[in-house]
Amino acid sequence: MERTFLMIKPDGVVRGLIGEIISRIEKKGLKIVAIKMLKMTRDMAEKLYEQHKGKSFFNELIDYVTSAPVVAMVIEGREAVNVVRKIIGKTDPIEAEPGSIRFDFGMTIGKNIVHAADSKERAEKEIKIFFKDEEILDYKRADENWLY
Ligand code: IDP
Ligand code: MG
Fold it and tell me: How far from the centroid of its chain's Cα atoms is residue 148's Cα?
């Protein structure tokens, strides 16, 4: 089954949205196979956002994601990368579809609550920044036979 990386950013944590976000992932039928709360180092943040190095918002972005704890997750399911990107919505919360996390809870691109990998390749890289192989668990959801 496909895997992706999802992270609740500092604003999501500090605003009390952890449960709301995890609930949407669970209700969709996706499986959380690894999860941890941590404060990211600047080194981790720069790796996570290496594609954006040199952009005007890069330093602001690193300050933002290292400003308070985050919740990092590995999510598994059919087409997990695409499905999780749809659940979080477009980067700018105003452009995101109603019903997406970013539309429903966000007001501005600089504080958009969640991060998710945008491809299978990025997912594998991003998972490695946060998790060791043995921290990713193998189990069956009780409703798996009703989801697939
Ligand atoms: P994504 O998070 O939807 O994949 P990216 O374009 O990869 O969007 O940008 C990464 C993150 O950088 C965004 O989620 C947002 O937090 C931040 N960001 C992107 N563009 C801007 C901007 O114009 N101003 C401030 N922050 C930005
Ligand atoms: Mg991105």
Answer: 23
Domain membership of residue 145 (yes or no) is no
CATH of residue 79's domain is 3.30.70.141
Q: Which domain holds residue 128?
A: 2-40+68-138
Banded pLDDT at 59 (limits 50, 70, 90): very high
Measured CA to CA, the distance from residue 21 to residue 118 in angstroms comes to: 18
Known catalytic membership, residue 115: yes
Structural domain contains residue 90: yes
- Candidate from 50, 57, 115 with most ligand 1 atoms within 8 A of CB, to mutate: 57
The band of 135, judged by pLDDT with boundaries at 50, 70 and 90, is very high
pTM over 0.85: yes
Q: Is residue 56 part of a domain?
A: no
In the reported structure, the alpha carbon of residue 5 is separated from the centroid of ligand 2 by a whole-number distance in angstroms of 11
Backbone angles phi, psi at 130, to 5 degrees: -110, -30
